[in-house]
Amino acid sequence: DIQLTQSPSSLSASVGDRVTITCRASHNINMYLNWYQQKPGKAPTLLIYAASSLQSGVPSRFSGSGSGTDFSLTIGSLQPEDFATYYCLQSYSTAGTFGQGTKVEFK
Amino acid sequence: QLQLQESGPGLVKPSETLSLTCTVSGGSISSRNFYWGWIRQPPGKGLEWIGTIYYSGSTYYNLSLKGRLTISLDTSKNQFSLKLTSVTAADTAVYYCMRVNVLTSGAYDSWGQGTLVTVSS
Fold first, then answer.
1. If 0-12 CB within 10 Å is exposed, 13-18 middle and 19+ buried, where does residue A2 land?
2. Which residues of B touch A45 (CB under 8 A)?
3. Is the peptide bond before A44 cis (omega within 30 degrees of 0)?
4. Residues of chain B neighbouring A94 (CB-CB closer than 8 A)
5. Does A49 touch chain B if contact means CB atoms closer than 8 Å?
6. CA distance B22 to B95
7. Close Cβ partners of B65 (under 8 Å, ≥ 6 residues apart)
8. Containing H/E element for A34?
9. A interface test, pick of B99, B104, B116 with most A CB neighbours within 10 Å
10. Which residues pair with A53 in a beta bridge?
């Protein structure tokens, strides 16, 4: 199984802050890494696929980078609607695995 | 616009079988570019991949659930289904159906709204 270690598990930030979340894979997964946002009571929504490609309709303040085992999601300027939980997902293996999640809270 | 909708009982007794169906509209489950699958999320916890099925009928299951899990397709109804046998309280979760998009490196790009299934007597 491919394990994903996401950090931090939570963070406090203010509107306008630049926020970075990291995800480390236990094996080389090339660029098969995706990022999701989940708000309470809602299904996750895809933000970034293939490590750095922005999903259609997602604001450009979201960006992804990395390859191999180390990846990151950056929110360039945090907006009020961005307070949520973020998950990474590896799709290198048919058996997908998620990171543990990062909750972005209001400071 | 692709839409996925889960349906099934919200309450299942311990040791019985959990059965859910996902109805897909706005796209065909017979497309070669997509797989279809299930994710679950216990209350207050993270996301867990359950399993995936291809239009050909090939299935891929979470090893921790293998032996209890069956995912199947009904192309005539544009639906796919999940059956999980011998459930316990640990199977209580919100269950999501989703689409795996081969064209975007296997990202799960469309999700149903989710349905809460509680295992309790």
1. middle
2. 111
3. no
4. 52, 60
5. yes
6. 10
7. B50, B51, B84
8. strand A33-38
9. B104
10. A49
Q: In Å, how far is B105's CA from the nearest CA of chain A?
A: 6
pLDDT tens, residue by residue, A18-68: 999 999 999 999 999 999 999 999 999 999 999 999 999 999 999 999 999
- Strand partners for A98: A89
Token representation of residue A71: 């990846």
Put simply, the answer to whether B109 touches A55 (Cβ < 8 Å) is: yes
For residues A37 and A86, the answer to whether their CB atoms sit within 8 Å is yes
Here the tokens at position B17 are: 């079988």
CA-based nearest residue to A88, from A29, A30, A10, A23: A23
Q: How far is CA A22 from the centre of its chain?
A: 7
d(CA A84, CA B28): 32
Question: Tell me: the pLDDT tens digits for B68-107?
Answer: 999 999 999 999 999 999 999 999 999 999 999 999 999 9
Question: Which residue from A28, A11, A38 is spatially nearest to A71, judged by alpha carbons?
Answer: A28
